[in-house]
Amino acid sequence: MYSNNINSTNNLENTTVVNKNKANDEINPEKNNFIQEGKLDNYELNNLEFKQAKKLDKRSFIDMYWSTLKREQLIFFTFFVRNDYNLVFVKFSRFIFIFCTEMALNVFFYSDETMHK
């Protein structure tokens, strides 16, 4: 009797997980359409699961490297990327803030005599 209770509980949990997955697919059909049509941007392509990326990501190594450079390097992100959804003045403000912060940290470390030697 006890094992039947456990099996029925496991079946109930499995059916709720399946129903939640189906409900998520029904709620967000645009995501499935974009994945099927291949209309994903670089960020979404970089964050796909392995099986989906194997099917959908047809970029060369140079394209993947360039997308990483545009996202991670401060100068490329600020001045060369135009079709992202960030505001221009926010990008410039971020650039100035990070540049000043990096310079200040370099001044602190290189002015210390133990670090200088």
Write the layout of secondary structure elements.
Elements: H1 2-27, H2 29-37, H3 42-46, H4 50-56, H5 61-72, H6 74-80, H7 88-111, H8 113-116
Helix pairs in contact: 5-6, 6-7
Kindly describe this structure.
This protein has 117 residues and is an all-alpha fold. It has a domain at 73-117. It is 80% helix and 0% strand. It is built from eight helices and no strands. The protein has helices at 2-27, 29-37, 42-46, 50-56, 61-72, 74-80, 88-111, 113-116. The longest helix is centred in the N-terminal third of the chain and has 26 residues, at 2-27. It is elongated, with a radius of gyration of 24 Å. The model is unreliable at 15-20 (pLDDT under 50).
Helix and strand composition category: mainly alpha
Q: Please, what is the average pLDDT?
A: 75
How is the biggest beta sheet arranged?
Answer: none
Total helical elements: 8
Give the % helix.
Answer: over 70%
Please summarize what this structure is.
The protein is mainly α.
List keywords for this structure.
117 residues
